[in-house]
Design brief:
Keywords: Membrane, Transmembrane, Transmembrane helix. Helix content is 57%, strand content 26%. It is an alpha+beta fold. Strand 2 and strand 3 form a beta hairpin.
Length: 301
């Protein structure tokens, strides 16, 4: 009886071991199959499927466009709406009218027709999130009548950012060493001043590198687009009121006659007064005349 129980116990233990091994093998097979499926779907080996590969390259994307439209003002408003819709903003706009020539013709006695030939243009600079640049450009493309050029650039600034970061790190470490040197060994005034100057210089370098990185990150985050719009020469006609010419004032004939008589009398009065003022001279001339005349008569006798 005891021998029979022992045999049953041995057979049971073997069965349990076999069942356990099969269960473990099944779970491992399922795990391997799942990993293989993930690898096939992603194109990444199963051993690397759990690792992340972030794209650390950074690009500054810019675009420059010039094109003709039917109406510059209307198109400018539409571009501003597109920029706002794509979470961007306008940094510059310069809407101008260049007058080619002006013609003015008098059509009635008191009316003028003025015709102005002008060219309208607008220079716009916008900034949009980098991920919205393509969508923004495609939306703007629907407004183009005739395109002069379209330039899109992507500048890789990954190494620039790395260089600024390393510069900032080096200058910060140098700054820390100089600070400790000042605290521990700075005793003489001249040495202290020199150390302080170096300290300020290194601090400035660290700040410049930080600002440069902030500027790079801002340009990476927001793309810049410069747009030049223009349209065909436009004509505007406008009716104006003709100004009446103002003639200078002229007095009447009676007034002129009176003024002439008065002026003549003034001249006569001045002449009489002038003659009276020189009466001695006139008297002397008369006396000389009679003396000469009498002398001739005496000589003839």
């Amino acid at each position: 009886m005891n021998l029979y129980l022992k045999q049953i116990s041995i057979v049971g233990a073997i069965a349990i071991s076999i069942i356990s091994c099969e269960s473990r093998y099944s779970s491992e097979s399922k795990s391997l199959d799942a990993n293989a499926a993930d690898s096939t779907a992603t194109g990444i080996p199963a051993s690397l499927a759990n690792q992340s590969f972030p794209d650390q390259r950074k690009f500054i994307r810019t675009a420059v466009l010039k094109f003709k439209v039917d109406n510059v003002v209307t198109t400018s408003y539409k571009i501003e709406d597109i920029v706002c819709k794509n979470k961007g903003f306008v940094t510059y706009t310069n809407l101008t009218n260049n007058i080619a020539n002006t013609e003015t013709v008098q059509v009635t006695a008191d009316s003028l027709l003025q015709t102005v030939h002008y060219n309208m243009s607008n220079d716009i600079e916008i900034r949009v999130p980098n991920q919205e640049l393509d969508t923004t450009l495609k939306s703007i493309a629907t407004l183009i009548g005739f395109i002069d050029y379209r330039i899109i650039k992507a500048e890789d600034v990954t190494l620039n950012e790395l260089g600024n970061t390393l510069t900032q790190k080096r200058t910060t470490q140098h700054f820390s060493r100089i600070t400790k040197a000042i605290d521990n060994k700075g005793k003489k005034l001249n040495d202290m001043l020199d150390a302080e100057d170096k300290l300020i210089g290194k601090e400035q370098e660290a700040d410049d590198a930080l600002v440069a990185n902030l500027d790079l990150n801002d340009k990476v985050k927001y793309s810049t687009v410069k747009i030049s719009l223009y349209q065909n020469e436009a004509v505007k006609s406008e009716m104006l009121t003709a100004e009446k010419s103002i003639r200078p004032y002229r007095p009447s004939f009676i007034s002129l006659l009176g003024e002439s008589l008065l002026s003549g009398w003034e001249m006569l009065r001045e002449l009489i007064l002038a003659i009276i003022k020189v009466w001695p001279v006139i008297l002397l001339c008369v006396g000389v005349y009679f003396l000469v005349r009498n002398y001739k008569k005496i000589s003839l006798k």
